[in-house]
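To the structural biology subgroup,

Please find below the input and predicted structure for Beta sliding clamp, which we are adding to the shared reference set this quarter. The sequence is reproduced verbatim from the submission form. If anyone notices a discrepancy with their own records, reply to this email rather than editing the shared folder directly, so we keep one authoritative version.
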Amino acid sequence: MRFVITKNIIENVISSMQPFLEKKDASSITSHIYLETNNGNLILKATDYEIGLESHIDNISDSVDGKATTNGSNLLGIIKRLKNEDIIFEVVSNNIIIKQNKSTFKLPMYDANEYPSLTKSQNLKNLDISTLNFINSVRKITPAIDNNNPKFELNGALIDIKSSKINFVSTDTRRLAISHLQNINNEESQFIIPKKAIIEIQKLFLDEATITYDETNLVVSNDKMTFFTKLINGKYPDYERIIPQNLKYNLKLPKNVLVESIKLVTSLFSNIKVTFNKDGIIFESLDEDTESKTQIDLPLNIDNEFYLAVNAKYLLDFLSMTNNENIAVGFNESNLPFYLEDDKFYTIVMPIVLEK
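Predicted structure (tokenized):
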């Protein structure tokens, strides 16, 4: 195998493959990137068995067909140090040789024939949805996906395809985030995408792509890349029973003023109390050792005073994903879950219970 390629082209692809490599065991073949030249094209693969990426590059020259593997982290470390000029890659005696001008590097290889295939799934179903809409929907709920929960299904996002709409759902047990789109042609189905995969899809695909899936895999592809992830095998909690059916109060509030006030009182402590009365909103830190307090004057059409005690991060996560100038806050009474909404995106938050 041999090929010549410009540094910035190969560096961008090798960088994008780092999250897909086995990091804990450098002796594993999945710590390697697979490289193959075939008829003037370069194919690169990286996978840790759970998630994987294949990229195709046609900007190569002086190529000889063949294949190789080499440690992905070491390969990137070498490429980063080189100048933004052509780099020569060549296989010699079970090593991959990297040359630029008078610099030469040698990295050991494994048997490329033993490199795992990314996915063997056949008869994948097409998810008939705009890739940009898909990414925008999962981006909104990403902050609420749990980390390292013993219930594996909570470490991912549920895609719940119903007859008339598609719900994108996540929860960390303290909040439930839901974004939804209209369903035009997709048959009813449910699957859970791991958080790592959700994050990588948002990085990799900025334009339209094809999304396909079956019971065990999700594949996203365009003419340059094919991404795959294994889906989480589990039953997602019945999230719809958590959604409040009736709300005593539903207030339209200015987003920017809320963000400014919340950030002002959370400079030292993240838990806050937000009190609503007919004349405005009071924001207070719940830190017992310091005092942070601010108020916005805003005529609210409410008879009684209510408060919400909450980790401010949940509010700021929601507000950072909203598009409109005003958002809706719905609640029944103090110490009960409350509702945040912006267009087709809403979050239900479990409060911090305070003694009345």
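Summary notes: Residues 125-241 form a domain with the DNA Polymerase III; Chain A, domain 2 fold (CATH 3.10.150.10). The chain has a mean pLDDT of 95.

Regards,
Lab coordination
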